[in-house]
Amino acid sequence: MNERAPRFLIVRLGSLGDVIHAVPSVAALKRRYPGGTIDWVVDPRYADLVRLVTVVGSVYPFDPRGALSALTAWRRLRAARVGAQGQTGRGNQYDAVIDLQGLLKSAVLARSVGARRTIGFSRRHLREPMARFFYSETVDPGDATHVIQKGIGLMRAVGVDDPSIAFPIAVPRSDAADTLAARVGSSGYVLINPGAAWPNKRWPPARFGALAAAIRERRGLRSVVLWGPGEEAAASAVVAASGGAAEQAPATSITDILAIAKGASLMVSGDTGPLHIAGAVGTPIVALFGPTRAERNGPWSPADISISRIDRCVCHYERRCRRAQPCIDDISVDDVVAAVERRVAAR
Q: DSSP secondary-structure letter at 69?
């Protein structure tokens, strides 16, 4: 009788950038067990994105902010362990639940599934150290710097030893992307993303507008300004400051951004989800970093360029800056124009 193919469950609820950064870990796991099944528990806001990861089987939306949603997802997860006779069956049981999040809530969720093994990071790599008490095994990924490398390092617990970074994401067709491409024409476009969840990750809209004007003058490329919920005013301010060099993108979903980023000649953004989407689909990047570390959260391609002011920052990984002027504002338009020139030349 053939041995049963292994089954794994990934817990990585959010945020958008962190979900993107988890994809290479899942890809590495699938390379190691090509016949295995990999399911994923994720925040409902990112479920459509995870469904596009070609190596993922079932996707379980889990909203920790809503009791009913959380209970429904938990029941579905527990049901995955039920055998054909209505008993808890080893044939359907997960061989391991792997918590890539490292929070107390994700660790509790991972353990509650009742798998044979519950795997998480060792204490020094956890954002909430209490999480370690809910793991049956912990892994120290060593001196890995980038969160992608840390995640792949966690997979060593299940025999993964290939550190290659891959993003098996099926980029869907998008009406918004098609409309944009028709409007811009064959000359191509640069994607600008001025928004971010943290105020001190946002570069001033007026500077993005000046950047768009410089790109049009130097490269003849038009800029398209992305925006999400609550960011439309910032996008409009970029367009107004661009002297006609930029236009506002249509309203987009996360899956639209995949297609729009795939078609862009370049992406310029702070440390936020759309930046990491662009990296996942291979778009050249110039990234702007203030309170977060580019070597930990930034682009992973050696050809991409990060401009960082972390050495001057006094509010590392804090949502709001304690200075009157955020450290990201120390990045000048000339700094970014020069980086854009280098990145375009490298391409």
A: H
